[in-house]
Design a protein that fits this description.
By secondary structure, the chain is mainly beta. The protein has one helix spanning 2-16; strands spanning 31-34, 41-42, 47-56, 59-60, 65-70, 73-79, 92-98, 102-110, 119-120, 125-129, 158-160, 169-174, 179-183, 197-200. Strands 2, 5, 6, 8, 9 and 10 form a six-stranded mixed beta sheet that branches. Strands 1, 3, 4 and 7 form a four-stranded antiparallel beta sheet that branches. Strands 11-12-13-14 form a four-stranded antiparallel beta sheet, with no helix packed on it.
């Protein structure tokens, strides 16, 4: 009982001192660090990887999500890597993005879990992008027309980066065929797409 009273008193003291974020009782204190961003002016159309590393006193944090910000604007949320493999490091979260021209202030925030406290990286991570669009090495490139074989009338499509390579992909539900057609974006020519890959789903219309 005395322990609970002392903890409540501690929280009140923090509030009086102007503290705005108070970890829940029993949560581990975490830190999140953003890997160094490219220095100088980055060429327009370059995919920039943002890599955040989350840890606590026991080592890498293996649960939860990291939200990346450009100033006050949210640019994406990525799950923390739990298991190691050839390309992923436990305790990290990676977001790839093509930024617009000008300066950008990048910050990573670990959203926390029931057992892990939320935390934020420094707000001094800056990135400068050059003006202009991407410059394909082969000159002007026209995208190839993709036929999705819709049996029913076209209803919806989604542009999103489903494979986290920094380039938008095209996802089209084929409601009459119980398929989802996915055309991955071409990293070398953003705005164009590769041939579709169909994913069958018997639950698409349920």
């Amino acid at each position: 009982m005395i322990r609970i009273y002392l903890y409540v008193l501690f929280l009140i003291c923090l509030g009086l001192a102007g503290e705005t974020t108070v970890p829940a009782y029993g949560q581990a204190v975490t830190t999140v660090a953003l890997s160094p961003l490219p220095s100088g002016t980055v060429a327009a159309g370059t995919v920039v990887p943002l890599v955040a590393s989350v840890s606590d006193t026991a080592g890498p944090v293996l649960n939860g999500e990291v939200t990346f910000f450009d100033g006050t604007k949210t640019i994406g949320t990525v799950a923390v890597v739990r298991n190691a493999n050839a390309t992923y490091v436990p305790g990290t979260a990676t977001l790839r993005k093509i930024f617009g021209p000008g300066g950008h202030t990048i910050r990573a925030v670990y959203d926390g879990t029931v057992s892990e406290q939320t935390s934020s990286s420094s707000s001094k991570n800056t990135l400068t992008m050059a003006s202009g669009g991407a410059s394909p090495s082969a000159g002007l490139v026209y995208g190839t027309t993709r036929y999705f074989g819709q049996i029913t009338r076209f209803q919806h499509f989604v542009l999103t980066d489903i494979n986290n390579d920094g380039v938008l992909d095209l996802v089209v539900p084929q409601l009459g065929m119980f398929n989802i057609a996915i055309s991955l974006g071409d990293v070398t020519h953003p705005g164009t797409f590769f041939a579709r890959v169909r994913k069958y789903s018997d639950r698409l219309c349920r």
